[in-house]
Amino acid sequence: MTSYFTTDQHERLRLEARDFAESEVRPRIPDMEASKSVQHELSRLIARQGWIGVTIGTQYGGMGLGHLAKTILIEELSRVSGAMGAMVQASQLGVAKIVNFGNEVQKKTWLPAIAAGDCLPTIAVTEPGSGGHVLGITATAVRDGDDYILNGRKVHIGNSHVGDLHGVVVRTGPGSQGLSAFLVESDRPGLSLGPHRQAMGLHGFSFGELVFDDCRVPAANRLGIEGEGLAVAYSSSILYGRPNLTAVSLGIHQALLDETTAFAARQHRYGKPLGELPSIKMKLGQMQSRLMTARLAAYHAVHLLDRGVPCDAELMNAKLINVEYALDSARNAMEVHGAIGLFSDRPIERYLRDAHHIFAPAGTSDIQLLRLGEVALGTSKGQWSERVTDPDR
User: Fold this and answer.
1) Taking the mean position of all CA atoms in its chain, how far away is CA 290?
2) How confident is the model at residue 393 (pLDDT cuts 50, 70, 90)?
């Protein structure tokens, strides 16, 4: 059934993604949780569905369906596995940098391969000493003839261990105009991976370390002009990162409600279903209300983005609401389940762990509130959703 935001095509895509998630992803979850290892084969299988190319234009072999379609895909995968939803959302960050800043040669070289599922892209910005503070980047690129030589470390890089093409933001000079972005193939000499580290949640997803040690990269691999790295980082985070992570939270939130309502219907207390108790019914009502509001905020924001309407504030608000509401509903779900929810043979504790991973990337809730405060005060510094569509940017 279509809604105000979705079309028949969107809903067909939803059913396709849902069927795939149930048949191909869900059976693998026990092994993913037990091994906590990177899911190389499953990541490739998902990529071969063509979904990484959902926002890539048809002239480059992509689906050309836009951000709402991307949201639906990530949501449906995340409803079954937050880890695989995160894999797709991280790949989409890698798409963003090429779509918005790549030249025609770079687009023709990489976008068809990404759309076909033969190349998984990433974006590498975060560093050990600066975290998400982009201007604190210390990794460097020094010009050497027709090449640049990269040195430094990047951490918490989504798809680090499955990525084929890393979009790396490094320092080429001082200040905010001293950052530049490069496309670095994963097999380039001088680029190595730190060991995969197991984390609290998102088991199967890799978000690890890239190490550059005199890694030589052709100048032709630079994205945009020298000094445009800040724009690459910010626009990718705001226009792709925030709505992508919103979609992951939305899928986890739906899973929380589905599992908790099913549990409340089959468990009995005092001779009737647990869900009939007023205190439990109220918690389910809270979860339902939050989910409805969260989905409305998410779909509204990407609907505006697809229409080319400036919507930075809506994207920030969507991430804020979806992350916070999913975490609130995770607590409600655990309260309804009681002690049984603490055991790993029930998925509730997995959803709770996975939901916490979505809080920090693309800006914590505090960052979203600070930026929304600037919107309220009229002191925000322009909108990236307007700049990247402006040919004179």
Assistant:
1) 21
2) very low
Gap between the Cα atoms of 88 and 76, Å rounded: 11
Report DSSP state, residue 228: -
Fold for 8-120, please state it.
Answer: Butyryl-Coa Dehydrogenase, subunit A; domain 1 (1.10.540)
Instruction: Please count the other Cβ atoms lying within 10 Å of the Cβ belonging to residue 280.
Output: 20
Check whether domain 231-387 has CATH 3.40.630.30, yes or no: no
Domain ranges of the chain: 8-120, 122-227, 231-387
Q: How many whole angstroms separate alpha carbon 245 and alpha carbon 323?
A: 8
Coil, strand or helix: which one is 182?
strand
- The hierarchical CATH code for the domain 122-227 is 2.40.110.10
Residue 392's SS3 state is: coil
Q: Between the CA of residue 14 and those of 6, 277, 283, what are the distances in Å?
A: 10, 34, 28
Backbone angles phi, psi at 210, to 5 degrees: -110, 135
Q: What are the pLDDT digits (tens) for 255-314?
A: 999 999 999 999 998 889 999 999 999 999 999 999 999 999 999 999 999 999 999 999
In order of 262, 322, 331, the CA distances from 368 in angstroms are 34, 12, 22
